Amino acid sequence: MAPEGSLARVAPAFRPVVTAARERLPRLFGPRLTSAYVYGSIPRGTARVGHSDLDLLITLATEPTDADRADARALDAALDAEFPEIDGSGTLVLGRGQVLSELERYDLGWFVACLCTPLAGEDLAALLPRYRPDTLLARETNGDLALLLPRWRDRLAATDGSETALRPLVRFMSRHLVRTGFTLVMPRWQGWTSDLREMAEVFAAYYPDRAEQLRTAALRGLDPRGDAALLRAYVDDLGPWLATEYARVHGVKTPRP
Description:
Beta Polymerase, domain 2, 4 strands, 11 helices, alpha+beta
């Protein structure tokens, strides 16, 4: 599986914010920063001005601390305030050793090697295997939905039911379920896409009875609305069905400590 993004695909409107991130990350984390990446719609060239967020991932030579994560959040807030072209910024802070560990080889390792575009430092893809869209990859990327669903229910129960509270949950859960549905059938399709609508259509060819649910999830992943009924359907119907079918077809993800 070849990397899906490239700095050459970054649209002119987003180049200043990507450049700012590339310049500020080394100053913020110093010599502990081993790698910096951008991922998501911006390096794929599909980002929408004012609607898409900036997704960053960095690795440090040592395990990240709470202070490191706080620094990353401060950077995200500064970039979001300074650049109206993006609708938020999010930075994942990981340890280099974790990404390269045997446990994460087919999860974080695959994510970095295939879905992330290098910005600065070492490209860890050179130290990772060539990935295939097989059942091992499917299991290790999304084979933990059953463990996530109770947390999702708790998050939904804890909201005040407002549009402001529900909208980010709809976006997050919709995207996660679409990607899980796609990776369920990925080994049979023998390919990869990050396009939510295409993911839903690929899934629909194998599970027509659930097709409309995943198409709706793809739509709401791109255009989220604060719909509590939709979220309840996710955690009470679509999510449990996907978790059960995933375990039947691919097994359950290797437990993490």
